[in-house]
Structures are given as C-alpha cells and as structure tokens.
Amino acid sequence: MIMIPDSLSPGDKVGIVAPASPFDPKKLEEGVKMIRDMGFRVECPEPMSITTGYLSAPDDFRARQLNRCFADKEIKAIVCARGGYGSIRILPLLDYPLIRRHPKIFLGYSDITVLLTALYRKCRFSVFHGPMAAGLGDVDEDSRIRLFHALTFVDALEFPLKDATILSSGKAEGPVAGGNLTSLCHLAGTPYGMNFHGHILFLEDRGEALYRIDRMLMHLKLTGCLSGIRGLILGTFDECGDYADIVNLVPEIFKEEDIPILAGFGGGHGRRNLAFPMGMPATLDCDKGVLRFERRRTVP
Predict the structure, then answer these.
(1) Inter-axis angle of helices 210-223 and 243-253, nearest 10
(2) Where do the structural domains in the chain lie, given as residue ranges?
C-alpha cells in the first residue's frame, strides 16, 4: 500500500532542505516569506549550506540534513530549496527505514526527481512534484495558489486541461509518477529507478535537444520500465526547441501503447509550474479535459 502523508494545516511547520546545487540566498528568503504568508511556519537549518562548487554542501551533510528533517516530528512537510545537480549522490546515504516511519509531504522537481522516485519506490509514500522554495518568486501567481491547494487538500485535487493538447484520447486511472526525463534516465538500471507499469507517466525537461529527448525516451523504453503505462502527460520542455517537434515525436515512440496522451500540462521548468501529488490515485480524462487526484491509499 502507498501511504498518503497528512495534508498541511495553518501553523504547521515546513522544513527547507538543499539536497542538490547551491541556491540564491535572496531568492530563498523571498520563497520562505511566501510560504509563511500561506500560513505555515518555516524552519531552515543552520548552516543551510556549505557550498562546494556545484553542490550546496558535501554529500554526507546534505543526506544528514534530509534525514533529520524526516525524523523531526514537528516538521510536517519538506520543501527543497532548488534542484540543479547532486541529489543522485546522496541516494545511498539516506536512512530509508527512518524515512518510511515518518511519511510527510516532500516537494521538489527537476534534479529532485531522483529523490521523489527513490522515496516513492523505497519508502512507499506519495511525494509531490512542484516549485521549490528558492524558485517561488519565479513562478506565476496561479502556480503559488495551486501549490497551497496541493499542500492542504483533504479529499480531491483537480486540474482542468482546457489549454492542453490531446495527442491520444481516452481515460486512464492510476497513480502518476515520473518527473524530469534526464533524471529518470540516470536512475534506470540502478536500485533507485522504478518500473512505471500501471502508472500514468509524467515527463518534463529543460535544455535538451530533440535528438537527446528521442534517445532518452528510447533508452527508457528499451529497459522495459515504460511497458504497461496507463497514460502519458507531457509537461513543459523549456529551452528544448520547438515544442511541436516533441509533440510529434512522442506518439511515435509510444505507438504500441493504446493510452491517452496529453501535452502542454503546466508542470516543470517555467513560469507556470503546477504542484501535484505522485503516488495517489489519479484519473486522466482526455475526453472531459480533466486531471484529478484523490487523497486515499492505492496499490499501483
């Protein structure tokens, strides 16, 4: 069974961690203020980082920071400061039995995809894909509003898909999983990667040429981890060339799968970055134009 972390209530404490690259302190301060304005208390560990080149801190430091936040019973949710690179280095250092005993909302995207995937697979609780603390000032107002709803909803969370493009019609039910395409490729073949059978797959990326997107999709396909997916959602592919080329490529890659495919969902890199849970029961209805999540346990 997939455990569902408790939703947040006003006054709950949110912990900030930096498991990947260094962050802009001013942007983090701005994001922390926005989280406090939502009605939550915020705790940033001191020191927050010990910058070592392209990493926010040494591996053991970042892993201990994350382990401590999960062990702290006062912290009800954990929000990453930013992505970049480095999350994959701490995967062997995390205390998964401890983390499993303390399921709580864990939020991030981009490079944080490796942590979302590892925690979902190894600890069996739902995780959250969405904007991070040092980037909250860069997303649009609707994304910030929807982040609050994602953190606090108790029954269902629904997204109208009127601005999205239907590449293959139909309806799919199953938990959503996935995230950053490049990060998912780097997990394939490791103990932390996952098989997406029975899931609705979500993909996004940034700064990748079309041929590299093609290569990564084919790589995942050839590993077998995409066999039996129930649906596919494409988020933003920022700075990846013409989005129309990606829209044309994807149905070709998944031509053997009779599944609904949706493009243009506002999740990933960019001003619009909608927060949503991964691992909860979900329904993708391309005919009615809606994506719906329900806060209840599921067996994927």
Answers:
(1) 20
(2) 13-155, 157-294
With beta carbons less than 8 A apart as the criterion, state whether 151 and 295 touch.
no
pLDDT by residue (tens digit) across 143-202? 999 999 999 999 999 999 988 999 999 999 999 999 999 999 999 999 999 999 999 999
The CA distance from 253 to 218, in Å, is: 7
For residue 296, what pLDDT is reported?
77
Which positions are catalytic?
Answer: 110, 204, 269
Residue 236 sits at φ, ψ, to 5 deg, of: -80, 150
Instruction: Name the residue with tokens 């939020």.
Output: 107
Q: Tell me the C-alpha distance between 8 and 151, whole Å.
A: 6
The CATH class that applies to domain 157-294 reads alpha beta
Q: How is residue 193 written in tokens? A: 């990667």
Tell me what pLDDT residue 300 has: 58
C-beta of residue 275 within 8 angstroms of C-beta of residue 130: yes
Q: State percent of the chain over pLDDT 90.
A: 95
Q: For the domain made up of 13-155, give the CATH fold.
A: Rossmann fold (3.40.50)
CA distance 221 to 150: 31
Structure-block tokens of residue 59: 């591996």
Closest CA to 132 of 111, 151, 107: 107
Q: Which pair of tokens denotes residue 231?
A: 């649906």
Total Cβ atoms within 10 A of residue 5? 22
Size (the chain), residues: 300
pLDDT tens digits, residue range 214-245? 999 999 999 999 999 999 999 999 999 999 99
Q: What is the 3-state secondary structure (H, E, C) of 129-160?
A: ECCCHHHHHHCCHHHHHHHHHHHHCCCEEEEE
The pTM of this model reads 0.96
